[in-house]
């Protein structure tokens, strides 16, 4: 079985702050953000809602994609999110069932 990596975007309750990250365990990582187990940007800005993710098979590919998205302006990130999740729902419960 090949390893999977995830590039993801999270936001706060009001969808005003966006955070892009990469991980090999999306459910664990989102749990850490939601419960503020890791100090830093996401804890400071109350970023607890998973609004977008995509899967990569290679870590280098995932990191490259993360950097690409991080370089985008807010409108481009918003369009990416709304292509998958037009209502900006929290996708955390959905990924737990994967």
TrEMBL record:
<dbReference type="InterPro" id="IPR000305">
    <property type="entry name" value="GIY-YIG_endonuc"/>
</dbReference>
<dbReference type="Pfam" id="PF01541">
    <property type="entry name" value="GIY-YIG"/>
</dbReference>
<comment type="similarity">
    <text>Belongs to the UPF0213 family.</text>
</comment>
<dbReference type="InterPro" id="IPR035901">
    <property type="entry name" value="GIY-YIG_endonuc_sf"/>
</dbReference>
<dbReference type="InterPro" id="IPR050190">
    <property type="entry name" value="UPF0213_domain"/>
</dbReference>
<protein>
    <submittedName>
        <fullName>Nuclease</fullName>
    </submittedName>
</protein>
<feature type="domain" description="GIY-YIG">
    <location>
        <begin position="3"/>
        <end position="79"/>
    </location>
</feature>
């Amino acid at each position: 079985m090949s390893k999977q990596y995830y590039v993801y975007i999270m936001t706060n309750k009001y969808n005003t702050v966006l955070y892009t990250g990469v991980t090999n365990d999306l459910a664990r990582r989102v749990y850490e953000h939601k419960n503020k187990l890791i100090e830093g940007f996401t804890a400071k800005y109350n970023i607890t809602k998973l609004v977008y993710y995509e899967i990569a098979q290679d870590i280098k590919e995932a990191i490259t994609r993360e950097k690409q998205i991080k370089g985008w302006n807010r409108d481009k990130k918003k369009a990416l999110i709304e292509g998958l999740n037009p209502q900006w729902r929290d996708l955390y419960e959905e990924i737990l069932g994967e």
